[in-house]
Amino acid sequence: MLLSEIKNAELKSWLQSWIDLCTPDDVVICDGSKKQNDELCNQMVKSGTFIKLNKPENSFLCRSEVSDVARVEERTYICSKKQEDAGPTNHWKDPAEMKAEFNVLFKGSMKGRTMYVIPFSMGPIESPISKYGIEITDSAYVVVNMCIMTRVGLSVISKIDAGAAFVKCVHSVGAPLADGQADVPWPCAPMDKKYITHFPETREIISFGSGYGGNALLGKKCFALRIASVQAREEGWMAEHMLILKLTNPKGIVKYVAAAFPSACGKTNLAMMEPTIPGWKVETIGDDISWMKFGEDGRLYAINPEAGFFGVAPGTSMKSNPNCMRTIAKGNSIFTNTAITMDGGTWWEDHDEDPEELVDWIRRPWKKGCTRKAAHPNARFTTPAAQCPVIAPEWEDPRGVPISAFLFGGRRKTVVPLVNEALDWKHGVFLGATMASEMTAAAAGGLGQLRFDPFAMLPFCGYNMGDYFKHWLEIGEKAGSKAPKIFYVNWFRKNDAGKWLWPGYGENSRVLKWIFERCDGTASCKATAIGNLPEEKALDLDGLKDMTHDDLALLLGVDKEGWKAVIPQIEAHFAKFGDRFPAELHKQLDAMKARLG
Ligand code: TSX
Ligand code: MN
Which fold has domain 308-387? Predict the structure, then answer.
């Protein structure tokens, strides 16, 4: 397709203004075809950006610059007109000042490079919950990743030509090439030139200087969470950092659950888990983001706006996530910053294979027993969701799936029980707002201190977090009796000797079963000061070895003194949100205090 064939005047003039500013050598409109994708992959193999792997098939390894390996929160900005609309948890810049700075940074920034124009849909193209975007980028790596993670195709341009709204996404690695200058495998700009910026009022994203993941694949965190969260609040829906799973009981009854966890809690593992309890089935709808709208029946319906998994590779194995390993094994995947084996396969820490020798992610020789990590800890796979053996057949249903329960959680080796049902929606919002993980000794603040990450949205909410909590309360008002039930889970409880009290992984199906049956009204619970907990007999523990009464008492008990000790930390956490923080959450904290006595 040629630029001149685009009809939408707004799209045309927006593209032309960026072409004029960035002065690329060439402009290519991406059509999402296999042919174009193969050409780009071959071109990146030739240029040294990609290595074609011997296995899995049609898969590639890419090694980034050592300084460009993760999202850069300190370079991430919400550029709303008023700073208070970004709120105290976001970095803010004045939109006009930021644009003025970009007029300098982007001037000639694509010289010597090709500008790719990627028309993409977040969500199935015909879904009323989906939204469209156009990403301009000078990175072929971004194009081939976007082709896995989103639905790329010219039909999106047809929709925009017919008047559909779109989010304007601009990305440059910020490394123009002078005449005759040789390229490097991973061009990017130094840290003080990197900018990941969001203009919520004009639905724009502008990203400069980084080629990595969430900094560059703008459909994911930038659009599907930061911009979409703003759209969701204005339009009365929800854009959440949640996996979506389908749970089927032995009678064939289905319920859908959406779950938010901070990083390093195994969200992707839960989304694809293999239940250990007979007759129960888990299938995947999505592993990271959920967009939810009210259906005509008043229930919340969720879609996964993504089309692939962009997951952390280290730790992923047949033990932790067999279905993810099977997804990757089907090929058509991109590996970023993993190690490469001598026979042209890929490897990372905790991988099932145990190679003697390989080449690590910074191209150094590596031998078994070596103390250095072979893969970067944030090494990633990009793989098509459709290849997942347990993807639910309805994962692309344009209507979405009706959600019965929300799960929140964190990594808590003390105090927090295995599972806790909120007393009502408002109490559930309190649980979401107080989501936290315990910090390791290395992290600032130190051992035992909590790192709060409300709703796992702290880095991803595109507006004032106080308003976000209010939005959650308002959704509950609107949903009334049709609102999903809310639960808080913790797979990470330890005893005093440091032993894991819960086996986790597929055994978490026992917890999902109780949640399913709470939604059905068939499982019992005991009301406590912190919420509704399962009695021992209500949790299916059949066939679970090594579970003592003492362990269970810890997992399903209320550590009153522990909870009381956490209250000052919750108060300090709440105090950070300023004057837009809803009074209801202070009321919830006071009520919990009173219940604890
Ligand atoms: O993903 C995890 N889940 C959810 C799985 C569906 N992990 C990995 C977290 C890092 C990403 C877990 N780790 C889980 C869990 O439920 N639980 C644990 C802690 C744990 C680790 C090992 C054992 C038990 C618990 N047991 C043995 O290794 C024998
Ligand atoms: Mn995520």
Answer: Phosphoenolpyruvate Carboxykinase; domain 2 (2.170.8)
Name the residue of 282, 489, 500 to mutate for ligand 1: max ligand atoms within 8 A of Cβ.
500
CATH 2.170.8.10 domain extents, the chain:
308-387
- Sort strands 243-248 and 281-286 into parallel, antiparallel or unpaired: antiparallel
Residue closest via CA to ligand 1's atom 27 equals 503
What gap in Å lies between CA 452 and CA 449, rounded to an integer?
10
Q: Is 500 in the pocket of ligand 1 (CB under 6 A)?
A: yes
Report whether residue 312 contacts ligand 1, using a CB cutoff of 6 Å.
no
List the catalytic residues. 265
Nearest to 308 by CA among 107, 32, 541: 32
At 571, list the tokens. Answer: 């108060």
pLDDT score of 142 more than 90: yes
Instruction: Decide: 486 and 425 in contact? Cβ < 8 Å.
Output: yes
CATH number 3.90.228.20 is the correct assignment for the domain at 240-307+394-596: yes
The answer to whether 73 touches 195, Cβ cutoff 8 Å, is: no
Distance separating alpha carbons of residues 402 and 97, to the nearest angstrom: 43
Contact (Cβ atoms closer than 8 angstroms) between residue 385 and residue 286: yes
Q: Does ligand 1 lie within 6 Å of residue 269's CB atom?
A: yes
- Ligand 1 atom nearest to 315, measured from its CA: 11
Give the mutation target among 268, 440, 491, 509 for probing the ligand 1 site: most ligand atoms within 8 A of CB: 491
Report, as an integer, the average pLDDT of 67-71.
96
Token readout for 480 is 């009334």
Q: State if pTM tops 0.90.
A: yes
Domain 3-48+72-236 has CATH 3.30.1360.30: no
What's the pLDDT tens digit per position in 170-187? 999 999 999 999 999 999
Query: CA–CA separation, 507 vs 509, rounded Å?
Result: 5
Q: What is the pLDDT of residue 400?
A: 98
Q: What is the pLDDT of residue 439?
A: 80
**Tokens representing 376?**
């970067």
How far, in Å, is the centroid of ligand 2 from the Cα of 267? 8
